[in-house]
Write a structure and sequence with these properties.
The protein is mostly helical. It has helices spanning about 1-20, 25-55, 60-90, 100-120, 125-145, 155-170, 180-220, 225-235, 240-290, 290-300, 310-335, 340-365, 365-414. It folds into two domains: about 1-180, no CATH class; about 195-395, no CATH class.
Length: about 425
Amino acid sequence: MDQCTVSGGNFLLNVVLARALGQDEYGRFALFLGAIFTLRNIDWSLISFPLSVRLSASSGDEHARLLGATALLATALGLVLMVAMGIGIALLGAANLLLPACLCYLCWQAQETSRRCLLADFRYREAVAGDAVAYIGQALMVAAMLKVVPVTLSSTLYIMSATFAVGALVHGAKLRIAWPKRAELWQLPREYFSVGKWSLAAYQLVQFRVQLFPWLLATITGTAATASLQASFNIANVMNPVILGIGNAVPQIAAHAHRTGGMRAAMRTVYGYVLFGLAPILVICFAGVLLPNPLMQAAYGPASPYVAAAFCLQLLMVAGVLDYVAEMINKTLLGVQSGRLVFLVNIIALVVALTLALMLIQPLGLLGACLALLATNLVRLVIAVASMIWQIGHDRSWKQTADASSAETGDSRV
């Protein structure tokens, strides 16, 4: 339900802006969101993911100090990334977006960090209110503003900043945070980097792979094609509440089960969660494949130019199913500290995506981008399954070696 709130707000905002802005302007908004998500992924890998693994092993005062140290680290990292984003905006010559974009990023960072602190502690119910204020609130405010004055990209970013700031306050009021000890504060960055470095490498590759298609489309055919791709993604991303909602829980679930029962225990525990999410994923996929035109017309209007991208929506729906299964496998591998395998899966997927995109976008445009994404997701799933099988075999081999070593030690003592 929490992820439905977040994804539902994103969906509403994108539909409102797709209707209100021209194709070129909406295409620029899609590219801006892609840049924001790329930076947000750094924070998730180095802050939120290590916290989700670390928090389950703490309690009492240590728990509160860990949240305090994490908040300080997230603030420092957020300022560094904000400067990087500001430099990028300046280099692109979009000076009018510098202030609203940087403000939006900082407020989004504060909201998402406080949200992740709740999720890492399995407090999903308590995260719903703050996420509703932040995500659904911004869509409603932009829609209300449209009744008074035209909406621009700058005004949208200011509205998003305001709702993210309020959402962060709502989340923060529910957290018990204590000032960390100096030794903990110095030790934690090294520990978080050790846990999150492979996640950072792997999921930056994921982000580059996903953003590769809209950026290449914009470069080769123009931002109008990017807008059509984003319009199709908006509907295909109805799967996101399931993909992200289940995915948010899998690393810490797998980590806890792995500590007590090894790789097989982690797989058995995660398996039920994955099946629970697969049913709605398949329902959404069938709806998108069977009814692409009615869905596009309902979202954007019968006369919208985006209705012509209905076939691309069908391809993206199938790609979403493949992405769900591959993502759950990768999140499980991250939870059992097998980040190198996740990195391998995603670097191969990125190479395949780049190769196919360069081959297909030039002759086929938007259709070529969707076909390349579908094929890439299929390759990623196959490699992820192979990696999981290898990890299970490696874990069994390691356990047998450890048991044999223990037996030999026991015999020598006798």
